[in-house]
């Protein structure tokens, strides 16, 4: 038996390599061993038949914005994190990036508990705020001293390889007062350690939309290649729609930043997706490079997840191929792993996602409680991570995976 596992008969969709056809994929020792139109079932010890006209096999999906520091915060007190495998292999996702659920005070949970146990590949971007998300106030930088450059350096020395980037939320009173200083210092720290900075835009409690927009423009001029802007479609103050132009255009600094190599992510979650913003951006040709979930424990009960984000973008008019590209090739490149992830290729780790596209009339709700409908929803079927098979979790609704019917 040359192969451990054969994925047989599936419609393989890998937009990064222009693969969109029926292919068989053979796996051995956790890596992809062969991709051919026909591989005999007799050549593998296990065979997974993938049948159904709306069932797709895609490169392992990558969710670049999740909150999976499960156990680092206390339920009911800080941010509600999910176990990495809930948003990961239990949801047809093979790689999750934790986007600043913890600061250096509590990032230790990754090395001690999460990474040794997770089946999902987990990448940690630590919050610049020391005590991030341990209390409701600590969701944001509480005062300038909360960004402790010395302690961050010491943390990085003591935990080699753990921290792959920094996360900053452009939210809260200190940011409202001294946003430029906060951005400048965070970027200096990221530079000091040679890792990217990911920044959350959109502050629902900001009293001054014009001022919030100014700060976002400053941010976009400060970010450099490899950095990530997240929440492209936020309707909150501080979004990329130009407050000077009645929010009908996008600030010019956005495309300048993208041209400089900044990744434009659209993490939806519950708090930062406006359907009108997304539609207007699509009309303007302003497309996100990646989409992601902003998954939290609370969102997990309300449909939030990577497949949900993909379905919502499909309702805006993006194709399945578009959203798969965003969550495979683009995401892999965006987090600097384009040479390892995001493609179905011989020799690579066998990370694959299998899901169904289910036609219907599906009801979604955005951050402003505007209801919109889509005709396609995505439901996970199996996840293959390093050659190992995982079945989906129950799903983000009481009844499973599909959204409510409109
Ligand atoms: Zn988030």
Q: What's the topology here?
A:
Blueprint (H helix, E strand, L loop, with lengths): L2 E12 L4 E10 L2 E6 L7 E6 L5 E5 L1 E6 L17 H4 L5 E7 L8 H10 L3 E7 L21 H10 L4 E7 L3 H21 L3 E4 L8 H14 L5 E3 L21 H8 L3 E2 L10 H10 L12 H4 L5 H11 L3 H8 L1 H6 L17 E14 L5 E15 L2 E3 L16
Parallel strand pairs: 1-4, 1-5, 6-7, 7-8, 8-9, 9-10, 10-11, 11-12
Antiparallel strand pairs: 1-2, 2-3, 5-13, 13-14, 14-15
Helix pairs in contact: 4-5, 5-6, 9-10
Key descriptive features of the protein:
binds zinc ion, TIM Barrel, 26% helix, 2 domains, single chain, 8-stranded mixed β-sheet, Urease, subunit C, domain 1, globular, alpha/beta, 7-stranded parallel β-sheet, 406 residues
Notes on the structure:
With 406 residues, the protein is of the alpha/beta class. Helix 4 runs parallel beside helix 5. Helix content is 26%, strand content 26%. The mean pLDDT is 96. The structure holds zinc ion. The site of zinc ion has 4 residues, from loops.
